[in-house]
Design goal:
Two copies of one chain form a homodimer.
Chain A: H1 3-12, H2 17-26, E1 28-32, E2 37-39, E3 47-53, E4 55-61, E5 67-74, E6 78-79, H3 82-87, E7 94-97, E8 101-107, H4 108-117, H5 119-145, H6 148-158, H7 162-165, H8 168-175, H9 179-192
Antiparallel strand pairs in A: 1-8, 2-7, 3-6, 3-8, 4-5, 4-7
Helix pairs in contact in A: 4-5, 8-9
The structure holds a DNA duplex.
Domain Cyclic nucleotide-binding (chains A, B): 30-115
Protein name (chains A, B): Crp/Fnr family transcriptional regulator
Pfam families (chains A, B): cNMP_binding (PF00027)
Chain lengths: 193, 193
DNA sequence: CGCCGAGTTGAACTGAATCAAGAAACGTGG
DNA sequence: CCACGTTTCTTGATTCAGTTCAACTCGGCG
């Protein structure tokens, strides 16, 4: 159950087996079936979550009922609403399993314990968040400056398997267009390339 | 010269005077005049930089010659291209002073030293980057889902003084519209509100 | 078998970009 | 202190990318 987390952590920092064994005691394993929710908007996000297996999405729903996807959480990634987790305020995000998933949850008290007791984990999370920030900044700049087609091409390049694993309308709400527009883009790209 | 940094660090973590005194030895103070560049695209970002005083912008220029602003760096903020700084690859960003500024630069070796020698700084940067990630995610979701007018209103709410300090066309390239569109938006908002 | 969600396609519409021109504000040098 | 060019901002006309609304197809599943 902890294989992927162990692998990911070891790729980033050096820790002893004892330290990782200690970390293991702080996580709660959880299986989540497809279409089930890890978090619904209005709730407080009580956990930050590592995806051992499966696929999730975190998204908001606007006043017109449209969904906007912040993130797909695949194997080896973390999901959760950081702001709600840290402040205890209600979340505006929903987190839903797109495939049957195996998760490792950690509560805020346990997380704080982990950071205090094992400084290497402080570094692990710093680097993790750092990489996430870089990726999010890239996506933001792309969203500001590129056309729908460019954003779609970039997504396919960054996550080649995503279009097989998730429905097209979710890809549309990730890149910030309607499903109709994405559909037209795809047919153009097939005929024109 | 280190007042603001000291204040900001103390707001986030607890460190001893010796630790901060040590940190001070690792920074290089630098004054940067208005319109001068701290980083130009194509260069490697050699420093991550704290703004003691003044105002900077980091931005890219696309193939059509349009500017896209990632960030305004004001007093108490950090600026730099994290990706280039960490990997040593050429940066795509430009960083320019919008006002005469006083900066504290730290090189990668010094930064690593700081993180290794003073674990509290590892935490400081983790929290700093965490907050930055939350803000960037918010801005991304806003860019995906909101209209130009909503994004402009949000900017004014988040940074009330920005529209006095920077030219309108830069605000336009921050929210991802042309200066003409922003100009029309502003005249609408004045007449209609 | 019938229904429902997912995807496609068409037509009309709209928010924002582009192109173009002029007005106002600014800094710099004489 | 004024004259100059430069940058910034505005306004209008036109174009275009992407939305909206609507109808239809396809595949899966109860």
């Amino acid at each position: 159950m902890f294989e992927i987390l162990h692998k990911k952590v070891n790729e980033t920092i050096t820790i002893t087996d004892e330290e990782f064994a200690y970390a293991k005691t702080l996580f709660v394993p959880k299986k989540l079936r497809k279409k089930r929710f890890l978090l619904e908007d209005g709730e407080v996000c009580m956990y930050t979550t590592f995806v051992e297996k499966g696929l999730l999405r975190s998204f908001t729903i606007d006043d017109k009922g449209n969904e906007h996807i912040l993130q797909f959480g695949m194997q080896g990634w973390w999901v959760g609403d950081l702001y709600s987790f840290l402040t205890g305020e209600a979340s505006e995000y929903n987190i839903e399993a797109l495939e049957d998933s195996e998760l490792l949850l950690i509560t805020k008290p346990s997380w704080n314990l982990l950071l205090d007791e094992v400084p290497a984990f402080e570094r692990y999370f710093r680097i993790l968040i750092q990489n996430n920030l870089i990726a999010t900044q890239r996506r933001l700049m792309c969203t500001i400056s590129a056309t729908a087609e460019e954003r779609y091409s970039k997504l396919l390049k960054d996550f080649p398997d995503i279009s097989q694993r998730v429905p097209q309308h979710m890809i549309a709400s990730y890149i910030g267009v309607t499903r109709e527009t994405l559909s037209r883009l795809r047919s153009q790209m097939i005929s024109g390339n």
